[in-house]
Amino acid sequence: MRIPPGEYFLQGNDACVEGALASGVRFFAGYPITPSTEIAEGLAQRLKGKDGVFLQMEDEIACISAVIGASWGGAKAMTATSGPGFSLMQEAIGYAAMSETPVVIVNVMRGGPSTGQPTKASQGDVMQTKWGSHGDYQVIAFAPASVQEMFDLTVECFNYSEKYRVPAFLLSDAEIGHMRGLLRIPEKLKIIDRKEMGIRRTDEAYDVPDDLVKPFPVFGKGHKAIITGMTHTENGRIEPEDSKVHSDLVTRLNEKVLRNRKDINQWEMIGEGSKTMIISYGSSALGPKEVATTDPNVGLLRLKSIWPLPEEPIAQAAKGAQRILVCEMNLGQLYFSIKRVAHDAGCKQVELLSKLGGEPPTPSEVRHKIRSMGAI
Amino acid sequence: MDIFEFYRKDRWPHVFCPGCGNGTVMNCFFRAFNEAGLSLDNTVFVGGIGCSSRVPLYINSDALHTTHGRAIAFATGLKLAKPGLKVVVFTGDGDLGAIGGNHFINGCRRNVDMTVICINNNIYGMTGGQASITTPHDFLSTTTPYGNKEYPFDLAEIAVAAGANYVARWTTRQVHELTKSMKSALQKKGFTLVEVVSQCPTNFGRRNKMADPAQMLDWFKANTVRRDKTKNAELDHADLNLAGQITVGEFVDRNRECFEELIGVEKHG
């Protein structure tokens, strides 16, 4: 049951719980892991009886598997985890991509590799989100930078995963997950439900921009659907040896996300056209935002969605900029992708401010770095 | 229901080798399903990876062919999201007991209403005959060329200890008993397991002097001990499955409350 519209003072992870409930989540399976556990605890309280099912399972592999199973039962389903659990989920994430199952996976990132820094923030899983499972596939990922966005972007994760039948990720981190702040829950929310086979309705999901997203056959409605992670034709026939079937399928799975990049991508631009632009996302964009809002010579592109890569806004920020600084809490992950797009758009000086150890870059660290790059 | 309505004729030819026990299991399952009066429209079949896990793809109903070892976890989510569905899992010894062992024991413990049919052929058949967790001691496989030095798992006993509501084991030789147990499992509420010791002449028998499927069935017959006829508890547990004896029969039949009842999700399906 969702809480009424209004203003609340909440922790980021709790805002994620409210976002999931507002989106109509009906199934959650989780396994305790710092710093995401509050999401499981919150949903354990709220998903009971007629409101839905909360399940604590034996490991993260079971969680993501049960979430995919629940989605085929027609429920909006979600799990939440952090680095080590996220690594365990990778095979099933590839299965969700191949079988086109809408699922939402929240990753409250912590320092890795391995057990690393359980209570500290990082952005070390950005590339794993895109490339973690084997084979070619696309995902949708959002990176919240405030308590409000933990709510808003959880809603967007559900919306886009339902609309495009792909796994969607909320890439938060320990900093945002445990941050307390103001949450405004609006009266009206845009909620998208999956395009169900055999049903005609006039709402957004039924109005997908092209025919790359197939209608979803919910189990138990006589569709006799065959859902498999093997190479299959449109009617579920397994054809692992047919090269055309495979290439058509994998191309379509990638195209349905890439072609609709403009529909999916979200960002915030401050001081567009500045000679010095900072590109960042999530909690590492907080320091740069303070610099950009106080210094008229510095601009900021804050990416709210990071996969598929928002190439258009990055190129727009790079056009006319003399230098770009990318801020990340890793040793450079999205940096190389941003550098490629920025180079193509004509900006040749693209540098990285990388911050490891668990705390986001401070405004003074950002100023120091852009000064060393020749700005200010 | 006619057997050709039950199976997807358009998906033939199937992948199973000549002499494979899967055909026997499928035939018995069809009879049990029919006798239990269940409807295909309301049943979902879930499989993992392996020869046995291909069975759901041949049944004329919704099928979820999942990742290796995780079929029970997928089935758990599906059943809880839509409690009105009947959920049946087809799995094998490697899928259920090795890579999926954790989901297996926790599935029995959680006792979500589902029927698991485990076709135990004592080998990894699809990948060409590697030793599995139920390959008998000292038997040969491509990964145990000097004989299997490990001892096998007893899947049925594990299920009993972990809390399943109904557990039975038969071989493909005892088709009537097998059909009856499948029917009981389908009609029982909660987590139910029917383990079928089945022949894989291609990849198990061939390397163990039983290349002819009939030889394997004779071997089953000669080594089967009925649990209900062995009054001696020691015999019931004498060594593990297939190491000298195959203990068959109903292992447990009880009525622990299933998970859906306990969390009260059923009435909201």
Structure summary:
Chain A is an alpha/beta fold and 376 residues long.
Please provide a written account of the structure:
The complex is a heterodimer of chains A (376) and B (269). Chain A is α/β, with parallel strands linked by helices. Chain A has 2 domains: 1-259, Thiamin diphosphate (ThDP)-binding fold, Pyr/PP domains (Rossmann fold), CATH 3.40.50; 269-372, Rossmann fold (3-Layer(aba) Sandwich), CATH 3.40.50. In chain A, 37% of the residues lie in helices and 22% in strands. Chain A is built from 13 helices and 16 strands. In chain A, the strands form 3 sheets. In chain A, strands 2, 3, 4, 5, 6, 7, 8 and 14 form an 8-stranded mixed β-sheet that branches. A 5-stranded mixed β-sheet of chain A has the order 11-13-12-15-16, sandwiched between helices. In chain A, strands 1-9 form a two-stranded antiparallel sheet. In chain A, helix 4 links the parallel strand 4 and strand 5 (103-111). Chain A is globular and about 65 Å long. The model of chain A has no long low-confidence stretch (mean pLDDT 95). Chain B is an alpha/beta fold and 269 residues long. Chain B has a domain at 24-34 and 43-123 and 152-198 and 225-256: Thiamin diphosphate (ThDP)-binding fold, Pyr/PP domains (Rossmann fold), CATH 3.40.50. In chain B, 34% of the residues lie in helices and 19% in strands. Chain B is built from 11 helices and 10 strands. Chain B has helices at residues 3-6, 22-35, 71-81, 93-98, 101-110, 155-162, 175-187, 201-205, 213-223, 233-236, 259-263, and strands at 43-47, 62-65, 86-92, 114-120, 123-124, 130-131, 166-171, 191-197, 224-226, 246-253. Chain B has an 8-stranded mixed β-sheet with strand order 2-1-3-4-8-7-10-9, sandwiched between helices. Chain B has a two-stranded antiparallel sheet with strand order 5-6. In chain B, helix 7 (175-187) links the parallel strand 7 (166-171) and strand 8 (191-197). In chain B, helix 2 packs across helix 7 (175-187) and helix 5 packs across helix 6. Chain B is globular and about 55 Å long. The two termini of chain B are 27 Å apart. The mean pLDDT of chain B is 92. Classes of the chains: A alpha/beta (376), B alpha/beta (269). The A-B interface holds A 26-27, 29, 48-50, 53, 55, 57-59, 61-63, 65-75, 77, 91-92, 95, 217, 219-220, 222-230, 236-238 and B 11, 41-42, 44, 46, 57, 60-67, 70, 73-82, 84-85, 102-103, 106, 263-265, 268. Strand 10 of chain A pairs parallel with strand 2 of chain B, so a sheet runs across the interface.
